[in-house]
Amino acid sequence: MEFSYSDRAQVLVEALPYIQTYYQKTIVVKYGGNAMISDDLRKAVISDIILLKLVGINVVVVHGGGPEISAMLKKTGKESKFVNGLRYTDEETMDIVQMVLCGKVNKDLVATLNRAGGSAVGLCGLDGGMMKAKRRLDGGVDYGLVGEVVSVDPKPITDVIADGFIPVISTVAQGVDAETSYNINADTAAAKIAIAMGAEKLILLTDVRGLLRDKDDESTLISQVRVSEVPVLVKDGVISGGMIPKVDCCVEAVRSGVRRTHILDGRIPHSILIEVLSQAGIGTMIW
Question: What pTM was computed for the model?
Answer without folding.
Answer: 0.95
